[in-house]
Input
Amino acid sequence: MALKPATRLRKICLALPDATDVVMRRGPSYRIADKIFAVERLHEGATTLWCKVPPGSQAVLTGADPRRFFVPPYFGPKGWIGVVLDASVDWKEVAALVERSYRLVAPKRRRREVT
Output
């Protein structure tokens, strides 16, 4: 039986060095050194991942596939992207986005530990 998107996302996030999860009112957040690198949210009825991306990536991703990528409210102006976690999601791509977000917010010593 396939894992639920939220379960798969949690496994990806918590596999990173010293990552923790904190339950928030609107869903879990995933953190390194108390800095959020990913959140799970319901957005327009779908389970979604919100994560930080490098400058310029937000426009590229939303322009390439606006049904799958979106600018999340509140987080979007800070350089975050939203990803719809539906049946057709590429979990390798999700893992790469989560890892990149982790690297963008993690302390230097932790960034080196991610392979």
